[in-house]
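Lecture 7 notes: from sequence to structure.

We start with a single chain of 414 residues. Read the sequence below before looking at the structure.
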Amino acid sequence: QTLHAMTTTRVSALSWRTSTVVLVCGSLILTLALGIRHGFGLFLQPVTADMHWSRETFALAIAVQNLVWGVTQPFAGMLADKYGSGRVVVGGALLYVLGLAWMAHPTSELTFVLAAGVLIGTGLSGVTFSVIAGVLGRAFPPEKRSMVLGISAAAGSFGQFLLLPLTQWLLSHIGWAGALMAMACVALLMVPLASALAEPRLDQIHAFRQSAREAMAEAVTHRGYVLLTTGFFVCGFQVVFIGVHLPAYLADHGLGPNVAVTALALVGLFNIIGTYTTGWLGSRMPKRYILSFIYFGRAIVMAIFVYLPLSAASVYAFAMALGVLWLSTVPPTNAIVAQVFGVRYLAMLSGFTFLSHQMGSFLGAWLGGTLYDVTGSYDIVWYLSIGLGVFAGLMNLPIDERELRRPATATTAT
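Now the structure, written as tokens:
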């Protein structure tokens, strides 16, 4: 009997919490959490202008957010793997709401960093990929996991498409502080949705004899896991640099805020296609090839964008092409972890992989602001992003996706 079957049997006693309901509610949580988070780049200019801060200050807050998100994600995953994902989502959502409300009323640069960086970063760890992937991995059988992870990631992209225009409208009509308070109210919707993700205490229903520490030790000595985690660092660097600094980059070149909003919304819209497609392909071909294609593709798309003359048309074309490749790394990355190591510690192991992603995110956000303040240009970071894309593409090619063979007492989690 698999952990999937045991968990499903226990949860099915609560008849309305079917696998489909878990998928829908988990996807809606990602829609809200990531839709709000992807709009933070729109606040860079109004916040820094109103508070008389440098871009580096805002970039540091977002960089800290991404780093804290990554550092706390494995611990959120451990809690979800032990107590179930529903409880963790509730805690994360409440921290997210408090962070948004505090971010709207900073009294200093430090309080802004604490609110936008530490509090929201911690909250995000409880309501995003690893925790949601853990409950979905346990709710669905192996042959459906890649597709399900693709659907949930697509929902996160839909949130970017849906909420970015709303965020811009709020900024235009009620200012940045009012917009953040409105987003806090939107984030509060994640709390009732978390009830569908309630799971029994997993440490009390499974026969899996491997401890969390042993699982982590097994993973860090697995060459494929190390390569996968290294490549995911690049993903974080690229998407956060672009998400945070693209609006300012376009404004520096004389393009209006509507171009930036449309571009980021297009990224979200086309990533729905990308994440769904990679989830579908993941059950039909080696996932390492999908990841390599994504990273090489990003490098090519960014290189073309940087070297072509900048216009609204080139920005929209860039956004659509990059959108297909945006968060489409997430389904194959999490699916490889589940395929190799099983789902008992999926949230934790995905969380450590995500920590690498967020270390890259920290550098992408912070270096973007720092190098701009030093050089007056984003050129160096664009070139660095292109080079890292090639590097990540090469890192993913030799990953071994075969399931680890364990003694019978340990295979119950796969």
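The chain has a mean pLDDT of 85. Keep this in mind for problem set 3.
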